Amino acid sequence: MPGAVIVHHHTRYKTYPGEVTGIVVFSCLIASVAGCIFGYDIGLTSGLTSTEPFLIKFFPTIYEERKKQVITNQYCKFDSQFLTMFCSSLFLSAMTAAFFAGGITRSFGRKWTLFTGGSAYVTGACLGGISFNFPMLLAGRLLVGAGVGLSIHASPLYISEVAPAQQRGMLNILFQLMITVGILTASMTNYLSSKIPGGWGWRVAVAFGAVPAGVIALGALAIPDSPTSLIQRGDTATARKTLAQIRGVGDVREEFDDLSTASQDAMAVESPWKELLFGGKYKPQLTFSILVPFFQQLTGINVIMFYAPVLFKTVGFKQNASLVSSVITGTVNVFSTFVAIMTADKVGRRALFLQGGTQMIISQILVGTFIGLQFGMSGTGAISEQYAMCIVLFVCVYVAGFAWSWGPMGWLIPSEIYPMAVRTQAMSVTVAVNMFFTAFIGQIFLTLLCHLRFGLFYFFGAWVLLMTLFIAMLLPETKNVPVDEMAHVWKKHWFWRKFVVDTSDARSAEMRKRIALEMS
Ligand code: BGC
To answer: Is ligand 1 within 6 A of the CB of residue 434?
Structure first.
């Protein structure tokens, strides 16, 4: 049966026969657990550094210094660059692993990258959980970081490749949903494990990450690799069989042929890194691979994810109440992600970005203003209960806005805009930029808060305004467009069309013919 054609913004895109089968859902679910281990570490990071027995064991000097410090200015908290560096080490390790992930994903496939990532994480989490000195702890953290980097590289790519184009947004956002579940699980584990008598609860919290990571490693053995990846590695017979299996129809000729053509184009590229970074052909896509993760971190989301308990304590909550508040924001984060799951393939990526961005700007201005009105520039005074409630409320509105815009789109867009030839390399760029700025924001947050005071929220608000304008003007809509037909969206775009290089010249046609001959 030939594929149907759907009209999308006056351009006709193919829809291939097939449906969302059980195996696609299962495979996407397993791959999306990668988000869970990433989110778990984002949430765990803040908990660990405020756990006294953990600090006494590994950072005794910092613990003593922190205890001695008398806080007179609410904006200026105790800040140890060394302790923050320890937290950042995980994200920097993930950043490094992301570069290796490109090669592993290309040579061994998405499935084995997930397996390796899950296994590295399990080993690191166990090592961290039983560590009795700092080198062991650090080694565990670096391994966990490598596991995160590998898995979050392969997961969005894998999902975007196995999902049918019509449901790609929905299935890909499972990855973001799992990130939010991981963050929430960590907030709860932090809280519960701190209640374990004897001061070793943190070991449970650290080692617990091995559970979802084990699911990824074992699950990876049970799922098929993506047909794209199989074709790319020359196993066309298995690729055809897998495609038929995941689409649930016998005749997948058309989609298979298109994938094979895309693969021939990919094979014509000798050095994908050179092609991606210096070939000049991917300027539009590369702009998004770099700016989307950069902007995602500049929304300031991880200020809330890492520092919600610190922030809520600043506005006058007691220890328990501030932990509960981070569970509240974590819950809002999870449930708001469903809005994106339900709507990304219907209203499109742009609408979510624009609505979510506007909502975030407004709530950031309000949160900054509430804090400023109570603490002023000096950071002295106390916040009334009503004000504190308003702040929590608008932090939740902000988190909700993020959860259906920059959160999921930050991973979806970079995974769906590239042709096969440079897709894995481009994903390495995205993961690396994301990890670098996650670490960077974590590193500078306390200094920024001390200097910018309530203006910190205006600072991030201004960034969100800038990125929302960027999206409004420059992001083409990608909903429902098959990944391998994505080139059209750039050719049609008022700005990017100037940068699109037509590859159908004689040389590449010749090259394609040669490769087709070799393949047959
Ligand atoms: C971001 C994380 C963030 C999380 C919050 C993810 O998309 O990459 O940095 O902590 O969303 O839900």
So the answer is: yes
